[in-house]
Amino acid sequence: PSRMDFNVKKFASGAGLFFTRAVQFTEEKLGQAEKTELDAHFENLLSRADCTKLWTEKIYRQTEALLQPNPSARIEEFLYEKLDRKAPSRVTNGELLGQYMTDAAKEFGPGTPYGGTLIEVGECERRLGAAEREFLQTSAISFLTPLRNFLEGDWRTISKERRLLENLRLDLDACKTRLKKAKVAEAKAAVSAMCRCPEGHQHASSSCFQAEHELRVAQTEFDRQAEVTRLLLEGISSTHVNHLRCLHEFVEAQAAYYKQCHFHMQELQKELGSVIRLLPLRLPDAFALNSTNSAASACSASEGPVETDTLKIEEVQAPATGSRKAKVLYDYDAADSSELSLLADELITVYTVPGMDCDWLMGERGNQRGKVPVTYLELLS
Predict the structure, then answer these.
(1) Residue 322: which H helix or E strand, with range?
(2) Which UniProt keywords apply (predicted)?
């Protein structure tokens, strides 16, 4: 019973203190009570800390979304982390796409042009996926983890000490208010003592002495807590230095990742370029340049392609209609004088010539003219 009485008294005391602070805070907001103001430097430290927390949180959340766009996957990783368990390894989209392409190539036949190309592209996609996995792991360790440690560690400590400082400030201001009231009461009692009421004056002096003592204690506690909080807030500068180093590491990881991707894609383009040049592809119907010449340009089983030396480039004339613009997809070096060398991304004019192999078109660039492979072009409407 005595222990229960103690707990009840402790609870009542805590509730009373909370109520007193709430009253003090409300009176301050209404302008009915004085408020101890912090110095300008301290206020600047508070503002800087709030700003740091706000933007660190935003950067952290958006970096999370960048590295893992799937919200469900982020929640799953969060739960595993909170349960202190290692999240299962997740296949990247690039690795999964590469696997699908490889499986498709087995079905279509790896020896076919399409199957062989699927294998090449699939291998590249797997390498891109592996590079992405490494980038995600590096970024999580070097960038996300330090930001999260600040938000869940340092900032929580700062917030706790700030709340304690605010409570002590409210207690300090409440003591100042009580001392003022005690002094007013003492002054009134002094007047009463002159009117032959010494007991009242003695009681008022005792209350005033008690209020002064409480104020000194409250001031000491407030000053001590203000110093602790100030030191924590000044530590934000060290946080900025640490986050700056982490940011540099994130940029380095990102640059290395994109460099790897660029290298893999360049190698793939070279490989595909050499393969495409050897493929006996036909010009798709959708690329037919005009209906009048389509019959003459189509390859048939009974009519093979005309020998190169029978086609005199200088005698070829551009048709009045049917020519189109085309964008060059890859660099191409002419094998002989009948062909036109190409540079990737340039625009040329193309048209069909009766009797020419259907894998080729006649191309013009200014005064230059020559055969160009269809597979190196993107015909524009």
Answers:
(1) none
(2) Apoptosis, Coiled coil, Cytoplasm, Golgi apparatus, Membrane, Mitochondrion, Mitochondrion outer membrane, SH3 domain
Place of tokens 């004088």: 337
Amino acid at 250: F
Which residues, in sequence order, are bridge partners of residue 339? 371
Do 287 and 258 touch, CB atoms closer than 8 A?
no
- Distance between CA atoms of 179 and 270, rounded to whole angstroms? 87
Q: Which residues pair with 373 in a beta bridge?
A: 360
Count of beta carbons in the 10 Å neighbourhood of residue 59: 15
Q: Phi-psi bin for 31: left (phi > 0), alpha (psi -120 to 50), beta?
A: left
Burial of 32 (0-12, 13-18, 19+ CB in 10 A): exposed
Distance CA 243, CA 236 (A): 10
| Higher-pLDDT residue of 38, 74 | 38
- Determine the length of the chain: 381
Quote the radius of gyration of the chain (alpha carbons, Å).
41
Token look-up 């490889």 returns 102
The b/e string for 297-319 (b: 16+ C-beta within 10 A; e otherwise) is: beeeeeeeeeebeebeeeebeeb
Q: What is the pLDDT of residues 77-91, one digit of tens each?
A: 767 677 777 767 788
- Mean pLDDT score, 235-261: 96
Give the β-pairing of 347-351 and 324-328.
antiparallel
Q: Whole-model pTM?
A: 0.60
Predicted confidence band of residue 159 (pLDDT cuts 50, 70, 90): very high
Question: What span, in angstroms and rounded, lies between the C-alpha atoms of 212 and 77?
Answer: 56
Closest CA to 342 of 377, 379, 378: 377
335 residue type, one letter: A
Structure tokens at 337: 């004088």
* Cα 365 from Cα 350, distance rounded (Å): 9
* Contact status, residue 350 vs residue 379, Cβ threshold 8 Å: yes
